[in-house]
Design brief:
The complex is a heterodimer of chains A (114) and B (112). Chain A is mainly beta and 114 residues long. Chain A has no helices and eleven strands. In chain A, the strands form two sheets. In chain A, strands 2, 4, 5, 6, 9, 10 and 11 form a seven-stranded mixed beta sheet that branches. In chain A, strand 4 and strand 5 form a beta hairpin. In chain B, strands 2, 4, 5, 6, 9, 10 and 11 form a seven-stranded mixed beta sheet that branches. Classes of the chains: A mainly beta (114), B mainly beta (112).
Chain lengths: 114, 112
């Protein structure tokens, strides 16, 4: 499989559930990102990982917890979410976390919080 | 602060041209352009770097005015496949990571 993959593609969860989103990149990149895309809002950067180290947390609530066990895998652990957290969550990767490198996006996980 | 894109939406007939603009209030290292079709992931189109270097799509052109902190994407002889939402992303480097801040997008529809 090539590119950036995400699972699951769709997720419905209650506010008291705990779930995880998974992202895998097959591009040999060293940087990975989580973005949130809500309706009628721009893509919002959540977290940046470079060589498995978190290098950016864009003021994201603690109910979102990222994990990067190696440079190919990225997780987003979710717990006690709110309905306003319903959105498309996109993972991306780039060769490095430095300037000027294009990002490759996965297809996203459509999350609905009930 | 997010960049401002204009227009918000545009409808073209196949073969017509369009320009999408992106402006920022902050000094930029680079501007990225992506296209997202409904239900799909955003796809990289082009990066314009400070100093004039460009990386990206052969059939799409863009400009970057560093002084004005503006970029424009030029779509010429549009095809049906150009339909989608176009996002510009303005890039700053925090010292540890590159951060892209995306605009709200320009919805482009190409019709026969």
């Amino acid at each position: 499989e090539t590119g950036v993959t995400q699972t699951p593609r769709h997720l419905v969860m209650g506010m008291t559930n705990k779930k995880s989103l998974k992202c895998e990149q097959h591009l040999g990149h060293n940087a990975m990102y989580w973005y949130k895309q809500s309706a009628k809002k721009p893509l919002e950067l959540m977290f940046v990982y470079s060589l498995e180290e978190r290098v950016e947390n864009n003021s994201v609530p603690s109910r979102f917890s990222p994990e990067c066990p190696n440079s190919s895998h990225l997780f987003l652990h979710l717990h006690t979410l709110q309905p306003e957290d319903s959105a498309l969550y996109l993972c991306a990767s780039s060769r490095q976390a430095s300037e000027g490198y294009e990002q490759y996006f996965g297809p996203g996980t459509r999350l609905t919080v009930t | 602060q997010q960049p401002v894109q204009s227009p918000q939406a545009v409808i073209l007939r196949e073969g017509e041209d369009a320009v999408i603009n992106c402006s920022s209030s902050k000094a930029l290292y680079s501007v990225h352009w992506y296209r997202q079709k409904h239900g799909e992931a955003p796809v990289f189109l082009m990066i314009l770097l400070k100093g004039g270097e460009q990386k990206g799509h052969e059939k799409i052109s863009a400009s970057f005015n560093e002084k004005k902190q503006q970029s424009s994407l030029y779509l010429t002889a549009s095809q049906l496949s150009y339909s989608g939402t176009y996002f510009c992303g303005t890039e700053i480097f925090t010292g540890t990571a590159s951060k892209l801040t995306f605009g709200t997008g320009t919805r482009l529809q190409v019709t026969l």
